[in-house]
Amino acid sequence: MRVVIATVEGITGMDVGAIFDFHDFLLDQARVDVDGPLFGQQKDPARQLKRKSVAVMDRLTANFGDRSQHIAYYDILSRWGCTSTTRLRSKTHAFRRGGITYLRDRLRERGAHHFDMLHTLLQHGRWKSVSSLNIYLTVDDKRVLELFDGTGNGAKLVSDVVELPPAAATDNDEAQYVLQTYGRARNDVVFVRGEGCHLVDAEGRRYLDMAAGIAVNVLGHSDPGWVKSVRDQAGELCHVSNLYHTPQQATLARKLCESSFADRVFFCNSGAEANEGAIKFARKYARLRTNFDANWEQGLLDKILRRGPPTKFVSFERSFHGRTMGALQLTYKKQYKTPFAPLMAGGTESLPFGDLDAVARTLRSGNVAGVFVEPVQGEGGVLASDAAFLKGLRELCDETGALLIFDEVQCGLGRCGALWAHQTYDVEPDILTTAKPLAGGLPIGAVLMKQKVADAMSAGDHGSTFAGGPLVCAAANYVFDTVSAPAFLSEVQRKGDALQTKLRAKLEGIPGVVEVRGRGLLVGVQLDRPAGPVCESMRTESNVLAITAGAGDVLRLVPPLIISDAEIDTAVDAVAKAVTATA
């Protein structure tokens, strides 16, 4: 099936009325009363209807058989301008023209499964004098168009079936087939191309990307050298089993180790996977460190009294380490975790960020395998660790034998002005996880570790089919070579300082701005209210993209590391305009 658009002209009032009647009939079938609980006392009835549309659509589609698709009432109503209860009621009353009439009868004659309307859009504002109707449909043949051609009421199909515009087609396909876990339905932007620090949507609009795919596209979009690396490698070899060697993976591993504290690297496909690997490695190391298996057979009493090997982890309030089951256990937000409990056995202590006393009490219990910490929290609100805190964690881990694990998935690889964020604190971890920026937009993750951790692992202890493939490693080698250059990192620090300085100057005196903070080009603007409306205003009014952090009250700016001074000025102006407009 495909999404198409057809234009019908010569429509009479009866034809239009029949369409309205059919719409009203469907609402009746779903027991949806526009004056009732679905819209009653709602500031935005169309949005409320959208939120409840899944249940409504399930009831509706029961009337149409297996081949029907959901009718997107939210899109219909919002396009008709039904943005308030009063306007919705008035237009709905105008739709009722004599009950279920012509269109319903035609549907019954031809079989309801031939009428599969996704969007019905009136392109004119005058309801009684409309002469042209555009109909968005999904069809597997043209028979549905016969409903509007040769009806005897003057309607005539005047255009061939053409493909729906890309944005609308994408929206339709996604609404029907993609699991809705990302909240993309809140906007209708469909991106089709990227150039440097800009994205281009299906309508040709350009946006300054201050989110960089959430700190992923460090070299921007379609960097020529990156494109050449990927294209050349794709023409040679994309994938081979990890039972065999590839030069791209080995070269990348050497570069990562030589640039850091690490002796060994394990490759994976994402930040969450990297943290899952770190959990396994830390537990295996703890088991061997305590000589648990050797002591397990000392006797029944020993078995009963022993607590087992250290299995617990420490993480911190406002932390984010991923959404897979182990990484989710480490993540702070309860709303992420509660629906999927119980999570990882062994448990996690979530302690106040920066509270060394709480860490000391927990580690000295003797049952902690590792401490996970982000040197700079990203989703948590762009909160940088204090140097004394990280050094204190290092000392406590050395004292108790727990591993110190730095999650640099977002803050690492140049983002904070140094190659690795922890290098600005002069503290080394035992394990480090990285992912987001490493391949500049392709999926890769890596777990960097000291030799003592690597020695605990054996062949078969961990693995991943697609990890460290030659294609993504070719991209990662190019990204690493570019980002690790001292001159490049110096520019990141300079531009990060400039971004914060200009934001502070521009936002001074604007109500609701609490603080501008960050490290390098990981910058947050703390507000005294939700930052979501600010992001939306930046997108719609200035064509600048940003994201939120913290409790939703921090505007997070994580642009490509190649951002220019002129683009920084554009972003700062957009932030100030949006913060002012939403105050």
Automatic annotation (TrEMBL):
Gene Ontology terms: cellular component: chloroplast stroma; mitochondrion
Pfam families found in the cross-reference section: Aminotran_3
GO BP term, pick one: L-arginine biosynthetic process
UniProt keyword annotation of Amino-acid biosynthesis present: yes
Subcellular locations according to the entry: Mitochondrion
UniProt keyword Secreted present: no
Stored SUPFAM superfamilies: PLP-dependent transferases
Chief location bin: mitochondrion
CDD domains reported in the protein's UniProt record: OAT_like (cd00610)
UniProt-listed Enzyme Commission number(s): 2.6.1.11
Entries under PANTHER family matching the protein: ACETYLORNITHINE AMINOTRANSFERASE, MITOCHONDRIAL, AMINOTRANSFERASE CLASS III
The protein's name in its UniProt record: acetylornithine transaminase
Native organism: Pycnococcus provasolii
